[in-house]
Every structure is written in structure tokens, then in C-alpha cells.
Amino acid sequence: MLNAIHHRKTRGSVYGQEPKEELYQSYEDLLTASIWERIGYLPDSVIWHIVKKALAASCSAEMPLIVGALEAFRFWPRWQFKEGWVEPDVFLQFETCDVIVEAKRFDDADQQNPEQLAQELTAYFTTYPKRAPTCVVLLAVGGLPDYEKNIVTCLREQVLSRISATSRQRVQFGAISWSSLYRALEPIVAGSADTAAGTRLLRDMKRALVLHDVAPRDRVWLADLSQEIQLQGLNISLESFDGFAPWPRCSPELLVKKAYDWSIGDAYGRIQQWRIQ
Q1: CATH number of the domain where residue 36 is located
Q2: DSSP string, 171-229
């Protein structure tokens, strides 16, 4: 499906009449499936390695080195509990550890809901009352304005305070952005899979992120750059380019989008205002 969208071959399908990539940029579930389906193609130990790496930045607990075979890999399981039902995005069931993934569409928006996350944990323990894994992992992907440890810790406390004390002791919680998840898994996939196969998987995952307007790399802020940059051997002062003035902390993605809004003549005029030293 990812390649059909990329090559604009979805006309007449259930995904819509217009084969435009823009139509898919708001589809949270398509992004989730595009990334996690490909993670599911990897060996069990590699999948667990990726989960551990994703948790490492925000979870200080020491996770087990080995969790056994991956016994189940499900998308959007429906779990009943007293208040109704929930559908976490991905559920990974290893021999000795269960992983619940709740994904949100955007990396820099406040979308993760502690009540929803707590309900997913409650529904999990209701659905699997006799299962006793050594750990239960709840991983939030995307949906936070920032992923600093204090913000993730605050969300963790809000979530765990809503579940029973007995369940609370078994849960490890972490959060990571989509772009950081890709950076975490990239060296793992490149180093553990067949070179050609790993390259293809990473290419598809990067393509899925770009399709959904997620930067696979860290953003670089103009305000953090030097006042003078080297461009093809010339010193160009960013201060003299008035097009940058309204966005002192503009990301490259926003800058490119703004550039598309300029007419060719306007862009040419602005370029002429650069001071070449």
C-alpha cells in the first residue's frame, strides 16, 4: 500500500479517488501500520532491541535482555473492560513481556491522553488476568509537544495514578517521537539484517515518515546556526536575507513550505538581496 500511495496508484481504491499524497498525511493509522508492519518483519530479538532502545531515553528501569519468542503481533486489538472497550494501536506479546503501543499522528502536538492510556492498561489486565509476564510495557509514540524526561515523567505519573496499585508495579512506561523512533531503529536494522533487506526496510520506513510529513532527522533551527554560513565557498549573511526575518526559529520544513508560497519573481528578488561578501 505504501508504494501504491508513493507512486499515485490508489485511484478508485477504498482509500479515495484522488491519488494525492496530501490526502494521507493526516492518517494516523496508516503511519502506524507503515512503520510497525515493517518492524514486525524483523527477527524477534531485533524487535525487542528496538523496543528497549525506544524506551531508553525516557524510562530509567532496567529492561530484561531477553524476553523470548514473539508469540503475537496484533494491530488494533479490541479489549473490553468495565467502562467499555479500547483499541491500542499495536500489541506485541513476547514469552515474558507484553508491549502496548499507543501512537499519535504528530510529533510536536499534545495528543496523548493519560485517561486513554490508563484505560488501555486497565483493559489489558482485564483481558489477560492469568498472564504474568515479567514486565508490561506501555510505549507512547508521538503525540507530545516535547519528549524531555520531565514531561514524560509527568505523563507517566498521570497514567499510573489511574490504575490499581497492583497493576502499577508491573508497568514500565516510555514515550518517543516518530523521528526519534526511526533514529533508534536505523542502526539496529542496518546492523542486524541482511544489508540489502535492511536497506529496503529503512527506505520504506523513511518514505512513510516523509509521506506523513515527519522528519526522519532532527530539525535544525535557523537561530541555532552561525550568522555566517559557507555555501559553495561563499560567505552568505543570513541577516541580510529578509525572508528569514519573520521566522527566527523556523524549521527547514516550514522554510521550504514558505518558499513554495513565493512566486518565482518574488523568490528571485529576495535572492538578490543576499549580501555576498
Answers
A1: 3.40.1350
A2: EEEEEE-HHHHHHHHHHHHHHHS-HHHHHHHHHHHHHHHHHTT--SS----GGGS-SEE
Give the residue from 147, 174, 192 where a domain finishes.
Answer: 192
Q: Kindly state whether residues 120 and 38 are assigned to the same domain.
A: yes
C-alpha cell at 38: 515493517
Dig out the grid coordinates for 67 from the structure: 524476553
Q: How far apart are CA 264 and CA 259, in angstroms?
A: 9
Question: Across the strands, what pairs with 79?
Answer: 86
Q: Which of 70, 37, 55 is nearest to 184 (CA)?
A: 55
- Rounded to whole angstroms, the maximal C-alpha distance in the chain is 72
Q: Are 55 and 63 in contact (CB under 8 A)?
A: yes
Residue numbers of the domain that contains 96: 26-192
Q: Is residue 216 part of a domain?
A: no
Among 178-192, 235-249, 255-269, the minimum mean pLDDT is found in 255-269
181: its cell numbers: 523512533
* Alpha-helix runs per DSSP H in the chain: 2-6, 28-40, 44-56, 114-127, 149-160, 165-168, 178-192, 195-211, 252-261, 264-272
**Residue 221: per-residue pLDDT:** 52
Contact predicate 100/134, CB 8 Å: no
Element (H, E) at 98: strand 97-103
Report the domain count for the chain: 2
* pLDDT tens, position by position, 36-73: 999 999 999 999 999 999 998 888 788 989 999 999 99
